[in-house]
Amino acid sequence: MPVICAAIGCNNKFVKGSDIRFYRFPLSKPQLSSKWVSSLGLKNFVPTPNTCLCSEHFRADCFRDYNGKQFLREDAVPTLYTHGHEGTRTNHCFSYVQISSLLFLTLFFKVGLNT
Prior knowledge:
Elements: E1 22-24, H1 30-40, E2 52-54, E3 63-66, E4 69-72, H2 96-114
């Protein structure tokens, strides 16, 4: 499953060797996770265990340095959004059954129209 940033308008995705890091929503900390969701400004958004935000949405003081590596502080809240972030994000992941159904219907109607 590709790692992409959940922020609206952000097209960052994981690329090996990139300086951009990705952080999963802190679902085990409901209050902090709620702050992350609120910061996105999205209506009806429910993060999954795989939902991530990239490092570009966190201020420099949200990180701590340890042995030359940057780590996200445990209480960090994303606040940097260069793109408009108001709106509604829908779940764009489809199950295997949904994809199979869509393919079947597409093929069925295509064949039906040609005969």
